[in-house]
Write a structure and sequence with these properties.
Elements lengths: L1 E5 L3 H6 L3 H8 L4 E5 L13 E2 L9 E2 L1 H14 L4 E11 L2 H8 L3 E5 L16 E4 L8 H13 L9 H5 L18 E2 L2 E2 L9 H19 L11 H11 L7
Parallel strand pairs: 1-2, 1-6, 5-6, 5-7
Antiparallel strand pairs: 3-4, 8-9
Helix pairs in contact: 4-5, 7-8
The structure holds S-adenosylmethionine.
């Protein structure tokens, strides 16, 4: 899958390609290219920003270098989906990550300063935010989305099962995980996980996913795919009953 990033700070993008993502790039599963809007300016200072019309503080990124960068990418990769990173976009989540991971190519536009001249919105397909807060630059939003999307591409994460049961994979949060030692400062690992009984472990994990989701993010349950067994577990959770796995 191809990722293009339109940014005046390509070094942030390239410096972050480490670990699992670096391996995926080296194995040819994903390709990341940063395009600098400064390369599409025509003045001596390679100016990409200017004062806002109407006055006010800060600078606004100019529309021409950004649209020239978009055109440069589209000429080489006509299939690409162009995404403007902005706090006013739809909020990114796991469903959008899944949708994007099935596409052949994505192009992200990273704003800086007070943002980008609003007319850029006529040249993009989506406007996406990573949450209700303001970053100093779109590069950080790109890295969040890139990581979430890339790890869903087959082969990027070694163990496909680890993705299947992760938080949000089917609308629920993940169950608690433990590793050695059995006891740490008086806190033990649940006995069921050391029982070796796969069916008990499966039921305990499912029960805990429902319990944790109910306690911490009950809003997620509205869209979760629940089985008959899940409904029984959930009823036990709601009634505050313990569960014998
Ligand atoms: N003045 C803008 C506003 O109030 O909405 C904020 C501009 S912000 C300082 C600079 C750039 O960071 C934005 O153009 C956008 O690309 C990126 N950015 C900031 N917060 C973001 C968020 N929550 N999601 C995605 N991108 C964000």
């Amino acid at each position: 899958m191809r990722f293009w990033v339109i940014t005046i700070f390509p070094e942030i993008v390239y410096a972050s390609m480490i670990s699992v993502l670096r391996k995926a790039i080296d194995r040819g599963l994903i390709d990341v290219k940063a395009i600098n809007p400064r390369d599409f300016t025509h003045d001596r200072h390679r100016t990409v920003d200017d004062e806002p019309y109407g006055g006010g503080s800060g600078m606004v990124m100019k529309v021409e270098p950004i649209v020239s960068a978009i055109n440069y990418v589209k000429e080489r990769d006509p299939e690409t989906r162009v995404i403007l990173l902005t706090p006013r976009g739809k909020v990114f989540n796991q469903n959008i990550a899944k949708e994007y991971s099935k596409l052949p190519s994505l192009t992200f536009i990273c704003g800086r300063y007070e943002g980008i001249d609003d007319r850029v919105s006529y040249f993009v397909d989506d406007e996406v935010s990573i949450g209700d807060f303001v970053l100093s630059g779109g590069e950080y939003a790109f890295l969040v989305i890139f990581d979430a999307v890339a790890r869903l591409i087959p082969g990027v994460v070694g163990d496909a099962d680890s993705i299947a049961e992760e938080s949000f994979s089917d609308g629920l949060l993940e169950y608690p995980q433990y590793t050695r030692p059995d006891y740490f400062m008086g806190y033990g690992v649940p006995e069921v996980l050391r029982s070796g009984n796969h069916e008990r472990i499966r039921r305990w994990r499912r029960f805990m996913r429902l319990k944790i989701t109910f306690e911490r993010r009950p809003d997620l349950l509205k869209n979760a795919k629940l089985t008959e067994e899940d409904r029984l577990f959930l009823e036990a959770v709601i009634r505050g009953r313990g569960y014998v796995y």
